[in-house]
Amino acid sequence: MFTLSVRNCGVIAIRFITRSMSTVKLGCENPKPYPPEGYVDEVIKNLYGLKVKACKELDSYDDRNYHVIVEENHFNSFIQKTCKDGYILKIFNHIESKLTPFQDAQIALLEHQKEKGFKIPEIVKTLMGELKSLENILVDRKDEDQTGESERHDYVMRLQTFIPGIIIQKVPYTADLMYQVGKLGGQFDKCLSDFTHPAFTQSGSRWYFSGIPTVMDFIGSVKDPEKAAVIKSIIQAYHHEVEPNLSKLSQGVIHGDMNEQNTLVVCEDEALLKYKVTAFIDFGDSHYAPYVWEISMMMAYMMLDSKVLDPITAAGHVLAGYLSEIKLNAIEMDVLKTCMAARLAQSITYGAHTYEQNPTNNYVLTTAKTGWQMLLKLWQTPKEELYKQWREIIASYEI
Fold first, then answer.
1. Which of 399, 172, 392, 108 shows the shortest CA–CA distance to 302?
2. What are phi and psi of 139, to 5 degrees?
């Protein structure tokens, strides 16, 4: 059962919650939307004047993403021609939906990068010409999270064009491909160097660089004492090595989640394992942070599924690509290992905590599948050995 309230087809009037995202996202509440059967078709028709031919839900952490294919005929005056590859309907969780300025910041970032020539999803306007819509849904959650309760929440929704491609996780990792990942990531951040939005500095999230210390608030979700001890040692290293040097780390607006599932490639020659990195997706964690946080995340996540290439080597080629666009100073290079480990610790710990809240969401355990193995490999490898290997890789590109 559900009710759909279309508020002037997308005109949003919502107060800004002054609490930071780090505050509102850390509770035990499960904020993920639970749109009922038939809802997506209905909202696509009523808000955007499009008729759905096919719909598939995509993986998501705490939002909902739907890939929809629509018929050519439509009654939206803001659409010249429907996208043959379809669209993504993104329904933000009800907590982030309260952060209207943050939603506006994401839209501004997309427009900025589009003007810079990046392959970026184009936002589709509603029938009333709005770039997003706030909808109120009443959902019977009896079959969703076992609470047996009906809940009504407001959810921000956005429709954007679908970017075709292969998630990089599904293809073999080569040195060239990893270098491409780093280089495109560096280009992305470099093009954001002249972009700013107050929401990216005023809001916070546990997934942000500033959220690393909050990992300890959820350490109880890591049930293995030995693994919990590793997480604690990493966070302690962050406090001792990174925090004292925060003022010396160069910063800017970053993507914030260039992981193995948010990086798209196209196949150029499958027999030769030749792929081209074409785009990054999912800008929900974009924020103002040190560039070393961006590259450390990329390196850490690309280690997870590197089967052809040694994971440490793969990370080195990602670093080389990034440095070809954005240079890191000596302190930033020095804290790189700790930042990489901190990100994996974040992902593993938060994933375990979120799974406790919602055992039906297996997606939140994605990092943990190979994450523990990679985290231990990274953390237990002497820093000198790591950096020696990475310096040799960087030198091979004559950077």
1. 172
2. -125, 135
> Using CA atoms, how far apart are residues 359 and 155, in angstroms rounded to an integer?
22
Residues sharing a CB contact under 8 Å with residue 71, sequence separation 6 or more, in sequence order:
50, 51, 53, 82
Task: Count H helices and E strands in the chain, helices first.
Answer: 12, 12
The whole model's pTM is what?
0.87
- Say if CB 363 and CB 232 are below 8 A apart: no
Q: Packing angle between helix 225-237 and helix 336-357, nearest 10 degrees?
A: 140
What pLDDT was estimated at residue 150? 72
* pLDDT class of 26 with cuts at 50, 70, 90: very low
What distance in Å separates the CA atoms of residue 50 and residue 54, rounded to the nearest whole number?
12
Helix (H) / strand (E) element for 233: namely: helix 225-237
* CB 265 within 8 Å of CB 171: yes
Distance between CA atoms of residues 132 and 9, nearest Å: 9
Element (H, E) at 152: strand 150-161
pLDDT tens-digit series, residues 307-339: 999 999 999 999 999 999 999 999 999 999 999
Q: How far is CA 364 from each of CA 192, 213, 344, 373, rounded to the nearest angstrom?
A: 29, 20, 13, 17
DSSP states of 18-58: -S-HHHHTSSS------PPTTHHHHHHHHHH---EEEEEEE
125 in Cβ contact with 189 (< 8 Å): no
Q: Does the pLDDT of residue 5 top 60, yes or no? A: no
Task: Find residue 277's DSSP bridge partners.
Answer: 265
- Residue 141 is predicted with a pLDDT of 57
pLDDT of residue 17: 25
> Minimal CA–CA distance to 135: which of 158, 152, 155?
155
